[in-house]
Structures are given as structure tokens and as C-alpha cells.
Specification:
Elements lengths: L2 E6 L7 E7 L2 E8 L2 E6 L14 E2 L4 E3 L6 E3 L16 E2 L1 E4 L2 E5 L3
Antiparallel strand pairs: 1-10, 2-3, 3-4, 4-8, 5-6, 6-7, 9-10
């Protein structure tokens, strides 16, 4: 496990998404209340930013802004076509108001 501090808990508003970089690698972080989810920010079907897509906090999914595939923010698994490959998901947590992810390249 490689614990990486990526930002502050306040950086992600409730029911929203935010993009963070680990080096040059983009990670999308989603918040619903006190729950946080982290997945790769790049759609597995097309080079689109998932954090820029529409986030459905009730269904815990995000829509790729380019082709409309829905991804589960808990697992990174696509729910609809055209994407069929999952994106990587990461364990994320808050410690002393800092956001951390379990990341290994």
C-alpha cells in the first residue's frame, strides 16, 4: 500500500466530484455526505474526464461526458455501453481533515 495525501476533505463538496492529480495521473473523487469514492478520472472507452461528467449521488454513478457510459463510483465498473472495461477504483479516507488514497502506479 502506498498512502498518498491528495488534498483536504473540504476540497470535495457534498454530492459532487473533484479531480486530483497524483503526479500526472488524474483521480476522480466523489462525495455523498461523509462517504468518499475514488476512481481513475479517465473513461476506459474514450479519453474523457469522468469528474467532468454528471454525478448521480442517489445511484452512485457518473456519466462519461463524451459518450454517456455510466460508471459505478464505488467500483469503477461500467453500468452501460459503450464502455465495457472498468476504471480502477481506490480506497480513500480522511485523516485529520486530509484526503488520502491507497495508490500504487
Amino acid at each position: 500500500m502506498t498512502m498518498i495525501q491528495i488534498g483536504h476533505a473540504r476540497d470535495v463538496a457534498d454530492n459532487s466530484a473533484r479531480r486530483f492529480l497524483i503526479g500526472t495521473h488524474p483521480i476522480a473523487v466523489f462525495r455523498v455526505g461523509d462517504e468518499l469514492y475514488a476512481i481513475d478520472d479517465t473513461c476506459s472507452h474514450a479519453e474523457a474526464s469522468l469528474s467532468a461528467g454528471e454525478f448521480d449521488a442517489d445511484e452512485l454513478c457518473v456519466e462519461c461526458p463524451l459518450h454517456g457510459s455510466l460508471f459505478d463510483v464505488r467500483s469503477g465498473v461500467p453500468r452501460t455501453l459503450p464502455a465495457f472495461e472498468p476504471v480502477r477504483s481506490y480506497r480513500i479516507w480522511v485523516e485529520d481533515e486530509q484526503l488520502f488514497v491507497d495508490y500504487s502506479a
